[in-house]
C-alpha cells in the first residue's frame, strides 16, 4: 500500500469510528419481588430482572442511554446512576426526593441520559432507603472506539460487586431501625457478586467462582455496593495494581490490599502467575468507630485452570478491622496521571467548611413514624447525623429539583445551609464526645446555592461528637479532586501546605478520615440539585447530607430542559 493510500484508509477508518462511536442504547429493567435462598433461609427480596446483582449495564463513552424502569414490586424505588454526570438530564439522577419522587408500585419511569466525558466502572442502585441492599448492579462505560486503556489490554474483565445480606426482610429491618431510632440491625453476611461464600453456613452454590488461565491478566472491576461497611479486599498470595477509581484512571499503584467505601469503585489488574491452585478473594470490614458492625467475612474463589489440588483454597490474611493506618495509606496514596489534571481550579470562589458527624434528634420529628414520640436511644431520642449541625431531612411533597426549577421552594427546601459551622469548637477533642452543646441537632431541609461555574473548595471535618468515624462522602453530578487528607482539626494555615495541586486523585466518593479531614475542589459547571451525602446508608437516613443547588449558566448547554412527561411526582 502506498503512503497516500494508507493515509486515506486511516482517515476513512477514523471517520467510520466516529460515526459508530455514538449510538442509542435502550434497556428495560423490571423491578420485582422474588424469593432468594441464602444462609439456609429463603427471603423475599426486591430485585431487578430476577437477579442480585441485577444486569450489568454496558455502554460506550458518547452513547445515549434510555432505561425503562418498571416497578412491579410492592416498594417505592428510584434508580440512581452512581457517578454519572447527568449534564442537562438532572431529572434522571434518581435520588429520591432530591431529583424525583419515587417510582411507586405499579408505575414506571424512563431514565434518559448521555454518557459524556467519562469511562470506567460505575454502578446503579436504588436511592430510596434500604432498598438498595438488593436493587443494584454494575454500570460499565467502555472507552470510545479507537481509544485504549492507559494500561496493557487485559485478557478478561470481570465485575466484582460487594454487597451486604440480611437474613430478614429489608423493609422490616429498615422500619424497625427508624421507629426505634437505633438504626437497622447488623447484616448477616457480605456477598461477592451476590454470594456470601463458604465461610458461612450452607455454602453450596452460594460461592462465586472465577476460573483463571495461567499468566492471563484480569481487570477486576471492584464495586462496593454494601450498605454500611467499608471493606478491605485481598486475594491470597497475589498483589494487585490499581489503575482506576470511581471511573477515573489513576497512576498505576501496586498493593497487597484494597480498601473501598460504599459508593466507591476500584479497578485492579490481577495477574494469574502463581502456583496453579485455588485462592480465596475475601472482604472484611474496615471499622473506624466504636459502633457495632457485621464482623463476618465474605469470600469468592479464584481457581487456576489445570489445578489438580483438592486442598481448600488459600486464604489471605486480612488487616485487623480497625487498621486505620492501612486504610489511610491506600486512600491517600492514589494519584492521577499528571496529563489528566487539566481542570483543577487554582483559585477558589466558594469556600465551604463542613463538619460531619453523629448526633441525636427528637424522636417524633423527621424520618419514620411521626406519631411515635419515644425512641429507644438515650433520653428517648433517636440517633441522627449531621453536616454543620443540621440533620438533613428529605422533603415529601415535591422533589428539590422540581421545586428549584419551578421556583416553588416553599415547604420543600430553604437555601440557608451555612458555609461554616455556626459555632466553632475543638472538633476532634475527645473531651467533646458527650458535649451537650453539640449533641442534639434539629432536622432541616437546608440546601446550599452555588453560583454557576464557581470553583468550589470543601473542607470536610469529622467531629468527635458521639464518636469519631470515617464517613464516605459522595457528591452527585460531579467528580472532584482530593487535595489532602489528615487527622485532627484542619488547620487553615499549615494544612494548606499539604495540598497536592500537582497530581491529586479525582473521584466521586471520598472517605474522610475518622477524627480527621479531607479537602476537595471542583468547578460547579453542571447546573442542577446534587445531593452530597454519606454513602453509609444508615447515616444518610440519619441526615448526614445536604444538597448543592448549582445555578444555571448563560447558554442552553448550561440549562436544564423541562422534566420528561412521565416524571414521577409525589
Ligand atoms: C430485563 O428483563 C426484561 C424482561 O424480561 C428484558 O426485556 C430486558 O432485556 C432485561 N434487561 C436487561 C438489561 O437484561
Ligand atoms: C437465617 O435464618 C434462618 C431461618 O430463620 C436460620 O435457620 C439461619 O440459621 C439464619 N442464618 C443466620 C446466619 O443467621
Ligand atoms: C444526548 O445526545 C443526543 C444525540 O447526540 C442529543 O440529541 C440529545 O440532545 C442529548 N441529550 C442531552 C440531555 O444532552
Ligand atoms: C433485629 O435483631 C433482633 C435481635 O437479634 C431481632 O429480635 C429482630 O427480630 C431483628 N429485626 C428484624 C426486622 O429482623
Ligand atoms: C414507639 O417505639 C417504641 C420503640 O420501638 C415502641 O416500643 C412503641 O410501641 C412505639 N409506640 C408507638 C405508638 O408506635
Ligand atoms: C507484593 O508486593 C510486596 C511489596 O512490593 C512484596 O514484598 C511481596 O512479596 C509481593 N507479594 C506477592 C505475593 O507477590
Ligand atoms: C464478632 O462479633 C461478635 C459479637 O460482638 C463476637 O462475639 C465475635 O467474637 C466477633 N468475631 C470476630 C471474628 O471478631
Ligand atoms: C503513602 O502512604 C504512606 C503511609 O501513610 C505515607 O507515608 C506516604 O507519604 C504516602 N505516599 C504518597 C505518595 O502519598
Ligand atoms: C481537649 O480539651 C480539653 C478541655 O478543654 C483540654 O484540656 C485539652 O487540652 C484538649 N486536648 C487537646 C489535645 O487539645
Ligand atoms: C468557567 O470558568 C472557567 C475558568 O474561569 C472558564 O475557562 C470557562 O470558560 C467558564 N465557563 C463558562 C461556561 O462560563
Ligand atoms: C411512596 O412514595 C409515594 C410518593 O412519594 C408516597 O406518597 C408514599 O407514602 C411512599 N410510600 C412509602 C411506603 O414510603
Ligand atoms: Cu457516615
Radius of gyration: 23 Å
Cα(first) to Cα(last) distance is 65 Å
Helical percentage? under 10%
Largest sheet: 6 strands, mixed
What does this structure look like?
The structure is a single chain. This protein is mostly beta strands. It folds into 3 domains: 120 residues, Sandwich (Immunoglobulin-like), CATH 2.60.40; 180 residues, Cupredoxins -  blue copper proteins (Immunoglobulin-like); 219 residues, Cupredoxins -  blue copper proteins (Immunoglobulin-like), CATH 2.60.40.420. Helices cover 10% and strands 36% of the residues. The strands form 7 sheets. The protein has a 6-stranded mixed β-sheet, with no helix packed on it. Strands 21-20-25-30-27-28 form a 6-stranded mixed β-sheet. The longest helix has 18 residues. The radius of gyration is 23 Å and the shape is globular. The protein starts with a helix and ends in a 20-residue tail after the last strand. The N terminus is likely disordered. The site of one 2-acetamido-2-deoxy-beta-D-glucopyranose has 5 residues, from helix 2.
Explain briefly what this protein structure is:
The chain contains 6 helices and 32 strands. With 570 residues, the protein is mostly beta strands. The protein folds into 3 domains: 23-142, Cupredoxins -  blue copper proteins (Immunoglobulin-like); 156-335, Cupredoxins -  blue copper proteins (Immunoglobulin-like); 340-558, Cupredoxins -  blue copper proteins (Immunoglobulin-like), CATH 2.60.40.
Amino acid at each position: 500500500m502506498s503512503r497516500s493510500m494508507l493515509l486515506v484508509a486511516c482517515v476513512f477508518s477514523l471517520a467510520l469510528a466516529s460515526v459508530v462511536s455514538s449510538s442509542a442504547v435502550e434497556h428495560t429493567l423490571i423491578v420485582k419481588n422474588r424469593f432468594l435462598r441464602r444462609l439456609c433461609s429463603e427471603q423475599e427480596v426486591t430485585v431487578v430482572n430476577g437477579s442480585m446483582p441485577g444486569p450489568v449495564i454496558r455502554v460506550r463513552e458518547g452513547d445515549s442511554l434510555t432505561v425503562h424502569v418498571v416497578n412491579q414490586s410492592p416498594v417505592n424505588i428510584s434508580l440512581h446512576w452512581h457517578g454519572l454526570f447527568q449534564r442537562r438530564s438532572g431529572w434522571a439522577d434518581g435520588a429520591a426526593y432530591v431529583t424525583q419522587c419515587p417510582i411507586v408500585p405499579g408505575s414506571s419511569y424512563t431514565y434518559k441520559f448521555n454518557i459524556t466525558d467519562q469511562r470506567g466502572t460505575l454502578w446503579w442502585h436504588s436511592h430510596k432507603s434500604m432498598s438498595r441492599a438488593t436493587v443494584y448492579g454494575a454500570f460499565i462505560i467502555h472507552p470510545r472506539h479507537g481509544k485504549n486503556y492507559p494500561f496493557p489490554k487485559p485478557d478478561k474483565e470481570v465485575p466484582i460487586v460487594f454487597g451486604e445480606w440480611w437474613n430478614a426482610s429489608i423493609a422490616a429491618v429498615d422500619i424497625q431501625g427508624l421507629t426505634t431510632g437505633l438504626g437497622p440491625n447488623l447484616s448477616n453476611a457480605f456477598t461477592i457478586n451476590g454470594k456470601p461464600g463458604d465461610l458461612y453456613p450452607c455454602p453450596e452454590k452460594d460461592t462465586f467462582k472465577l476460573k483463571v488461565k495461567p499468566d492471563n491478566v484480569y481487570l477486576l472491576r471492584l464495586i462496593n455496593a454494601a450498605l454500611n461497611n467499608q471493606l478491605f479486599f485481598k486475594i491470597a498470595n497475589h498483589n494487585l495494581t490499581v489503575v482506576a477509581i470511581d471511573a477515573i484512571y489513576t497512576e498505576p499503584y501496586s498493593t497487597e490490599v484494597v480498601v473501598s467505601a460504599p459508593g466507591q469503585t476500584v479497578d485492579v489488574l490481577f495477574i494469574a502467575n502463581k502456583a496453579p491452585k485455588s485462592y480465596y478473594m475475601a472482604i472484611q470490614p474496615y471499622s473506624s468507630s466504636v459502633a457495632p458492625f457485621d464482623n463476618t467475612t465474605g469470600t469468592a474463589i479464584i481457581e487456576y485452570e489445570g489445578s489438580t489440588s483438592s486442598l481448600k483454597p488459600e486464604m489471605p490474611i486480612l488487616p485487623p478491622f480497625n487498621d486505620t493506618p492501612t486504610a489511610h495509606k491506600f486512600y491517600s496514596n492514589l494519584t492521577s496521571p499528571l496529563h489528566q489534571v487539566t481542570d483543577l481550579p487554582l483559585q477558589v470562589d466558594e469556600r465551604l467548611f463542613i463538619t460531619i458527624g453523629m448526633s441525636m434528634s427528637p424522636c417524633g420529628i423527621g424520618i419514620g413514624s411521626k406519631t411515635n414520640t419515644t425512641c429507644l436511644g438515650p433520653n428517648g431520642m433517636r440517633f441522627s447525623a449531621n453536616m454543620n449541625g443540621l440533620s438533613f431531612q428529605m422533603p415529601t411533597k415535591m422533589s428539590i429539583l422540581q421545586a428549584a426549577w419551578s421556583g416553588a421552594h416553599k415547604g420543600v427546601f430553604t437555601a440557608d445551609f451555612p458555609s461554616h459551622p455556626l459555632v466553632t469548637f475543638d472538633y476532634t477533642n475527645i473531651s467533646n464526645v458527650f458535649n451537650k452543646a453539640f449533641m442534639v441537632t434539629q432536622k432541616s431541609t437546608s440546601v446550599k446555592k452555588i453560583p454557576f461555574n464557581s470553583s468550589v473548595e470543601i473542607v470536610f471535618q469529622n467531629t468527635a461528637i458521639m464518636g469519631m468515624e470515617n464517613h464516605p462522602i459522595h457528591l452527585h453530578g460531579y467528580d472532584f479532586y482530593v487535595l489532602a487528607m489528615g487527622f485532627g482539626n484542619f488547620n487553615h494555615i499549615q494544612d494548606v501546605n499539604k495540598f497536592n495541586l500537582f497530581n491529586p486523585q479525582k473521584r466521586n466518593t471520598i472517605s474522610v478520615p475518622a477524627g480527621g479531614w479531607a479537602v476537595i475542589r471542583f468547578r460547579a459547571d453542571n447546573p442542577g440539585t446534587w445531593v452530597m451525602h454519606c454513602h453509609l446508608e444508615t447515616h444518610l437516613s440519619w441526615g448526614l447530607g445536604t444538597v448543592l443547588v448549582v445555578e444555571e449558566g448563560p447558554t442552553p448547554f448550561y440549562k436544564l430542559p423541562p422534566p420528561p412527561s412521565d416524571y414521577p411526582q409525589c
